[in-house]
Amino acid sequence: LGSVSVSSFMDLPPRPELFDFHGISMTHCFTDNWENIQNFQAKQDDILIATYPKAGTTWVSYMLDLLYFGQTFPERQISTSIYQTVPFLEINVPFMDSGVVLANKLDTSPRLIKTHFPVQFVPKSFWEQNCRVVYVARNAKDNVVSFFHFDRMNKVVFGSWYDHVNGWWKKKQTHSKVHYMFYEDLIEDAGQELDKLCHFLDMSPSVETKTWILDRAQFHNMKNNTMVNHSVVPVMDFEISHFMRKGKVGDWKNHFTVAQNEMFDEDYKMKMTDSTLQFRTEI
Ligand code: PPS
């Protein structure tokens, strides 16, 4: 990735078309490598970071990377981008190694692997190996705003937010190794969320280490860190929008009109009738 210059924007293919893939709207970048993805061999200690796009994937991925490797491989933090340290399993685009290739190249233990797949698309070896999964969810209003801005510079789709957050929520009820987190909780008290994460992972880092992780993973520090701020990705035009854009709860209020908000609430209520999931749209 690092070798691709921004000037190669001009050579990039047009934005991919959406199509129905097993009932989910997808683009070919995430389905072309389907067989290799489905045959991916997970290892017992792999950690899968699963999210609907724009819910806090990079934030939690980076926290996990710092937690496991921040102290032991400090050079990794300054020389290796998050695409390599936490490969995006289903990605398959011409200008870089596929997510499967990158994940298979990882020689760390554990391997940290990112996916945006709805739960039913996850390769079965992750369940067979009883891997830990960290799922991050974000309230629909802020998620859609973040998605909207990202979509102005790139395209990423993984079907309905409703199906995604509820599908993974259901999985959590039957699979003890799914840790379900909320973006809003992270914003409110990242320290507490890190403690819960450590408990789930059976880790007990020192107070100093946790303070260090929390500092490195603050929004403004990540925004200025080229290894995690996605500035090396040639398909993202930061003149249009930034990847580390605002990092807030409640930005939807700057985007939704009163009428849109009412319509949204009505539709939300209908779609979430059967769900026990509770989100906060402000804190
Ligand atoms: S992606 O493309 O799906 O992997 O994007 P993802 O990382 O899931 O989500 C990007 C949004 O997360 C915000 N973000 C953060 N917020 C607060 N603190 C920290 N440290 C942080 N890191 C990433 C990022 O700014 C995007 O949200 P918006 O609302 O667009 O700012």
Write up what this structure looks like.
The structure is a single chain. The protein is 40% helix and 9% strand. It is α/β, with parallel strands linked by helices. It has one domain (23-271): P-loop containing nucleotide triphosphate hydrolases (Rossmann fold), CATH 3.40.50. Strands 4-3-5-6 form a four-stranded parallel beta sheet, with helices on both faces. It has a two-stranded antiparallel sheet with strand order 1-2. A hairpin with a 2-residue loop joins strand 1 and strand 2 (24-26). 3'-phosphate-adenosine-5'-phosphate sulfate binds next to helix 2, helix 7 and helix 12.
Short structural summary:
The protein is of the alpha/beta class and 283 residues long. It is built from 13 helices and six strands.
Return residue spans where pLDDT drops below 50 for at least 5 consecutive residues.
1-10
Straight-line distance between termini: 37 Å
The oligomeric state is single chain
| Computed structural class | alpha/beta
**Superfamily (CATH H level) name:** P-loop containing nucleotide triphosphate hydrolases
Total tally of structural domains: 1
CATH architecture label: 3-Layer(aba) Sandwich
For the sheet with most strands, the description reads:
4 strands, parallel
Approximate shape: globular
C-alpha Rg, in Å?
Answer: 18 Å
Helical run tally: 13
Number of strands: 6
Please give the order of strands in the largest beta sheet.
4-3-5-6
Organism: Mola mola (Ocean sunfish)
Keywords: Transferase
InterPro entries: P-loop_NTPase, Sulfotransferase_dom
Family: Belongs to the sulfotransferase 1 family.
